[in-house]
Each structure stands twice: as structure tokens, then as C-alpha cells.
């Protein structure tokens, strides 16, 4: 018998009864306190409650070469030599590292397969509008090395180049990325759980306009897939490879976009409506190969296209397709975007990346945001800080509800036409690239 129980037995019957009631009440209070502690612990760890803010830095299209086009590979390697570089991914990828400094999570669109050996051709022999990329096997480890040691890297394969070496090539690409320690998203309709060093887990979900991957055109399905991910992980980042391409595709509208007259490339604003309505925190777009607007949705943020980041392959990099940005957003403990910044980039030649010292990329996104979303478009200053164009942009977005319609306003007289980029000068001892460029250039991207 316990000491308290012995004392009770020595008391008078009335006192003993009162003491027993007191012991019972005390036990009930202790049990209630324990339950409260359990509930408190569970509440502290419920989905959406992050232990600490998370810095997400996302880039657009990345291709580190192709071994499916030997003629272009030889020409590209010769051009890189003029800049003192080699076509090896271990030579190309380090250029990306400064742009992702300070990130907890790095998100990239892996534009092309990864591998070597026999493959099933995607393009016909005489095709003039089909492009296929397969990067060298060490691409995956080179991409993993662009992030700080404490950061994680996520590669999106929901795009029109993941099957450039066939279905087997896609599976090999996924395996190489995972073997290198890269989380892969866009393989199916389930979000990829990304475990962070803090102990938090975010969901990342990739979409593309194709029936064989999460289809960005099926907005009902987009809402369901994202909502399921939000229920499970709380904080969800959505990436989309969507929209028409090229210089004529810089504007963002709430309408279906058609590419090459027949290809349905989805509705970017409708997609963002579905993703945010289901509870996504951040929407990151790529695919048009040009920069597009950014838009606040309450305390959430959409980047409709981050442009070309590092595309070493037969891509057309004439202005403004040579411009890109790395978008960094801090997601706070409640799962909302606390702040964001853009880090502007420019390719001097395929595979040659530098910071955009003219900051033209920032001016493009700022003016496009004002044109396409006069009230909720992001305001980007000369330092790349992403602010709000008006207080209306701070209105919260409730899950499952769209924002009220925007009244038409006079459009600011801001040109989206980019100024010519400064001509790149190779090292002094090197000769300028000759006129032996291949006539075939990826402009714009096709299936």
C-alpha cells in the first residue's frame, strides 16, 4: 500500500471518505494533464506547423548536355572551350551553386533524360520540330552538389523531355537521381515527401500537360491531388511545366494556351487557382523558356515561369530567352510565404551562366506582373526583393474559394520587350565563336 493510502486508513470514516475523494480528484487531474501534454505535442506537430521557417530556392529548366545529338555535342564542346570550360556536367553545374546559397530546399526542372547506351529514338529522322536530350550519367551527382551540405535537392521530371530516351530512359533517370540523393517529384499523382534536417517534412508535387504524368490540364484532379498532399504534409510546394513557349509567350492569362497550333499546354492561372484553392503554399512554373509574371495569392505566391536557367543543348538563347531567375521564398512556421527574392541570371552561350548584372530579368518580371495582374502582381525592386503591388495583394485566399474578380484597370505603359543583351566576349586569347552553329535550335520546345 502506498504512503498516501496508509494515511487514509488511519483516519476516521468521514475523513477517510473525504481523503479518498481527494485522491480520486488528484488522479483525474493528473490524467487530464497527461492527456493535455499528449494533445499539445500532437498539436505542435500537426501538418502545416513547421518547427522553423524553410527557405525554398527554385530554378527553371536545367540541361547539362546531350549525347543523343553527336554533331551538336561536338560543336557545343568547341564553343565552351572558348570560355575555358568543358562539356562535363562537373564543369557546368558549379555555375549554379552561388544562386542557391542559403537554401534549405533546392527545386529544379530536370529538362531531359540522364544516361547512356542504346535508346529508343523519340524524334523522326527528318523532324524539324522535335528535340531530344539525354545528359551524361554523372549529371545527377553534379546537380546534387550545387546545394549546401545541409540542404536537400528536388528534381522535377514531370515535363516533355523525361522520356527523350524512352520509358526505360525515364526510369533510369529517376534511379540515377535518387541514387545521387536527389528527391524526385512528378513521377505520379502522389506528392514527394521531402524530409528536411530540421525534422520537418514538406510535400512537393510536379505536374505537366500530359496524361502519362499528373496532368496539369485536369484542374479537378489537380485540386484533389494537392488537397490530399496538404492533408498529409500540411505545407506543399507545387511545380508546373506548363504554357506556350518562346518570345510570344511572355504574357500570363486565365485561358488555355495552344502551342504549335494544336498542342494544349494548359491554363496557368486556372492551374494556380486549383493548387491554391486546395491549400498549396507556393507554385513554381517553367516550360515557356521565357520569364513570366509573379502573383501574390494572399500570403502565398505563384511564379508563372522562371525561364531558362542552364540549358547546355540546342536551345535558342536569343533575347529574352537567355534570361532566367532563381526564386527564393521563405515559408514560415504557419506554412505561408513570409518573404521572397529573385536572383537574376543570364546565359552568355549554351552552358555559360553568369549573374544578370543588368538586372533586366528583374525588370521583365516586374513589368509583366504589373501588366497581367494589376492588383495582385508582385512588385520586384532592383535588388530582387519581391513585394506587393498593393494592399489588396495581402487579402488571404481561403482554401476552396477563388479570389473576387479583378476590375479592369488601365494597363501601365510598360514594355515587355527586352533590351538587347550585351555581347558576350570570350577570353582574350580565344577566337569568337564562328558561324558553324547548327541550323537546328530548340525554339521553342516541342514534344
Could you explain the architecture of this structure?
The protein has 447 residues and is α/β, with parallel strands linked by helices. The chain has 2 domains: 3-44; 54-394, Purple Acid Phosphatase, chain A, domain 2, CATH 3.60.21. The protein is 25% helix and 23% strand. The chain contains 9 helices and 20 strands. The chain has helices at residues 3-9, 13-44, 70-81, 89-92, 139-144, 166-179, 219-233, 268-277, 360-372; strands spanning 54-64, 105-110, 113-114, 134-135, 152-156, 183-185, 192-195, 201-208, 236-241, 258-259, 263-264, 282-286, 294-297, 300-303, 308-312, 323-331, 337-349, 352-355, 378-380, 386-388. Strands 1, 2, 5, 6, 15, 16, 17 and 18 form an 8-stranded mixed sheet that branches. A hairpin with a 3-residue loop joins β10 and β11. α7 runs parallel beside α8 (268-277). It is globular and about 55 Å long. The protein starts with a helix and ends in a 59-residue tail after the last strand. Mean pLDDT is 84; it is low at 2-12, 14-45, 398-419 and 427-440.
Secondary-structure element sequence? HHEHHEEEHEHEEEHEEEHEEEEEEEHEE
The main sheet comes to: 8 strands, mixed
Percent in strands: 15-25%
Number of separate domains: 2
Mean pLDDT: 84
Q: Termini, distance in Å?
A: 80 Å
Uncertain stretches:
2-12, 14-45, 398-419, 427-440
Structural class: alpha/beta
Instruction: Work out the helicity level.
Output: 25-40%
CATH topology description of the largest domain: Purple Acid Phosphatase, chain A, domain 2
CATH architecture of the largest domain: 4-Layer Sandwich
How many DSSP helices? 9
Rg, alpha carbons: 26 Å
Amino acid at each position: 500500500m502506498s504512503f498516501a493510502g496508509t494515511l487514509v486508513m488511519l483516519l476516521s470514516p468521514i475523513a477517510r471518505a473525504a481523503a479518498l475523494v481527494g485522491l480520486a480528484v488528484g488522479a483525474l487531474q493528473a490524467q487530464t494533464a497527461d492527456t493535455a501534454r499528449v494533445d499539445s505535442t500532437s498539436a505542435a506537430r500537426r501538418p502545416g506547423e513547421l518547427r522553423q521557417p524553410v527557405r525554398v530556392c527554385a530554378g527553371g529548366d536545367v540541361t547539362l548536355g546531350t549525347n543523343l545529338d553527336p554533331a551538336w555535342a561536338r560543336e557545343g564542346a568547341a564553343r565552351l572551350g572558348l570560355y575555358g570550360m568543358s562539356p562535363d556536367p562537373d564543369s557546368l553545374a558549379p555555375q549554379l551553386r552561388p544562386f542557391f546559397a542559403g537554401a534549405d530546399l533546392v527545386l529544379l526542372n530536370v529538362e531531359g533524360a540522364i544516361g547512356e547506351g542504346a535508346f529508343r529514338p523519340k524524334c523522326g529522322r527528318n523532324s524539324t520540330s522535335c528535340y531530344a536530350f539525354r545528359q551524361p550519367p554523372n549529371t545527377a551527382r553534379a546537380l546534387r552538389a550545387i546545394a549546401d551540405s545541409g540542404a536537400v535537392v528536388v528534381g522535377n521530371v514531370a515535363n516533355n523531355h523525361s522520356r527523350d530516351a524512352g520509358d526505360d530512359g525515364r526510369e533510369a533517370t529517376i534511379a540515377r537521381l535518387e541514387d545521387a540523393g536527389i528527391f524526385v517529384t512528378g513521377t505520379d499523382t502522389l506528392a514527394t515527401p521531402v524530409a528536411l534536417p530540421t525534422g520537418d517534412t514538406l510535400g512537393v508535387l510536379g505536374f505537366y500537360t500530359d496524361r502519362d504524368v499528373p496532368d496539369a490540364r485536369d484542374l479537378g484532379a489537380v485540386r484533389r491531388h494537392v488537397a490530399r498532399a496538404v492533408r498529409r504534409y500540411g505545407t506543399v510546394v507545387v511545380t508546373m511545366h506548363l504554357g506556350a513557349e518562346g518570345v510570344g509567350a511572355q504574357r500570363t492569362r486565365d485561358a488555355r494556351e495552344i502551342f504549335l497550333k494544336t498542342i494544349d499546354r494548359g491554363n496557368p492561372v486556372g492551374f494556380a487557382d486549383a493548387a491554391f484553392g486546395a491549400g498549396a503554399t507556393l507554385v513554381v512554373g517553367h516550360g515557356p523558356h521565357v520569364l513570366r509574371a509573379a502573383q501574390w495569392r494572399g500570403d502565398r505566391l505563384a511564379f508563372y515561369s522562371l525561364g531558362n536557367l542552364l540549358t547546355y543543348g540546342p536551345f535558342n538563347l536569343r533575347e529574352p530567352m537567355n534570361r532566367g531567375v532563381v526564386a527564393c521564398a521563405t515559408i514560415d512556421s504557419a506554412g505561408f510565404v513570409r518573404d521572397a527574392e529573385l536572383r537574376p541570371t543570364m546565359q552568355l552561350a549554351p552552358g555559360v551562366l553568369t549573374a544578370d548584372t543588368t538586372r533586366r530579368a528583374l525588370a521583365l518580371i516586374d513589368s509583366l506582373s504589373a501588366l497581367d495582374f494589376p492588383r495582385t502582381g508582385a512588385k520586384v525592386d532592383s535588388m530582387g526583393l519581391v513585394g506587393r503591388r498593393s494592399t489588396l495583394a495581402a487579402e488571404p485566399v481561403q482554401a476552396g474559394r477563388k479570389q473576387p474578380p479583378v476590375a479592369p484597370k488601365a494597363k501601365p505603359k510598360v514594355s515587355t520587350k527586352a533590351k538587347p543583351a550585351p555581347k558576350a566576349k570570350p577570353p582574350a586569347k580565344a577566337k569568337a565563336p564562328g558561324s558553324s552553329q547548327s541550323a537546328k535550335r530548340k525554339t521553342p520546345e516541342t514534344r
